[in-house]
Specification:
With 122 residues, this protein is mainly α. The protein contains 7 helices and no strands. The N and C termini lie far apart (51 Å). The mean pLDDT is 93.
Amino acid sequence: DLQSCVVAATGADDRRALVQWMFSAIALHPDLQDMAQVSDARREQANDAMGELMVRLLTVDCADHARQAFRDGSADAAIGAAFGRVGEMAGEGLFADPRVAAEASGLIRHVDMNRLVELFLP
């Protein structure tokens, strides 16, 4: 199964490259442009690293699985599922970082708990 192979072959450095690539792309969204700036040169580095990662995973680490997916006509779905799962892992890794987790859990300071409690009252 291509997804299992890609997940198993993706190491910590690979997930770091994926997170950086995701961030560099997301930073272009109009709602985020004033919050994060990624230089064109840094974005190009992230794109290069992600391209190299995809090529390595599909042509070296998981070549047999990728070939089989192309042969049986499931390549689009298999590749999408495989890299979708790796992206999920990268996102999980972001929130596993202690500083990110602390900031995320601090959101509760900005929630009006009284308003939420009203949901449960008759």
